């Protein structure tokens, strides 16, 4: 019996089998640890990639935001630089407009109430009509309807008897401008003023002037007055006037095609016909008949007189 048991159980073989089993278990555990390490490394690599991508996206967003802020700052700086220039231009325009007397006159003209009408008068009675109508406005209590009466005039240089002087001349001989609100009463007050022959246009329903027409009629006096003020200011300060408007010159003694007598010079006692007048130089060109032929000559104002 002991011999049978020993054949079935050998302690050495059992130890060797246990050692082999333990070695196999160790190999399995090492393989599992290696697999776990590889899995962990793969997970770390994926997380690193995700973090890098996130960092790159966030960094790109931050860079884009910084660039947008920089562009916005540049736009704001450009607007800040442009705004003062616009303010300066806007500030210069009103100042320039205020310095222009014609522009100031135009604004004032448009702001006034009523319409402008043209009244026909007897020739040479324009100022008399203005005075008579102003008196009638007060006596008839028409101040709320008839606002202004104007006789358009301009200042011109006139040469008479060889003497040059400044005189006021009526721009529209035989006409007076009236600014008024047209009613039956105001129409009658103007129409029945002495020396008035009627309104220009329809007798009972006159058409008012346009503002452009009024400006053309009244502007010469404004321009002349402004030029005179500029010239006086320049003279008082000792400076030169800035290109004042040139005033027209009229000759009261004679005109074109007038026949005159030469009173001085080589052609004295001869008659001549004026063909050209130079008011600035106070000289004329005329045709003188010499030996049956008309000969052009140039004479001064002092050498001729009207026949």
- The radius of gyration computed from the alpha-carbon positions, rounded to a whole number of angstroms, is 54 Å
Q: Kindly report the spatial arrangement of strands forming the biggest sheet.
A: 11-10-9-8-12
Q: How far apart, in Å, are the first and last alpha carbons? A: 191 Å
What's the β-strand tally? Answer: 12
Question: What is the strand content?
Answer: 15-25%
| Unreliable stretches covering 5 or more consecutive residues | 1-7, 51-57, 84-94, 240-244
Order of helices and strands: HHHEHEEEEHEHEEEEEE
Give the class from helix and strand content and strand pairing.
alpha+beta
The amount of helix comes to 40-55%
The DSSP helix count reads: 6
Biggest β-sheet description? 5 strands, antiparallel
Tertiary shape? elongated
What's the overall average pLDDT, rounded?
75
InterPro entries: NGN (IPR047050), NGN-like_dom (IPR006645), NGN_dom_sf (IPR036735), NusG-like (IPR043425), Rib_uL2_dom2 (IPR014722), Transcrpt_antiterm_NusG (IPR001062), Transcrpt_antiterm_NusG_bac_CS (IPR015869), Translation_prot_SH3-like_sf (IPR008991)
Keywords: Transcription, Transcription antitermination, Transcription regulation, Transcription termination
Family: Belongs to the NusG family.
Protein name: Transcription termination/antitermination protein NusG
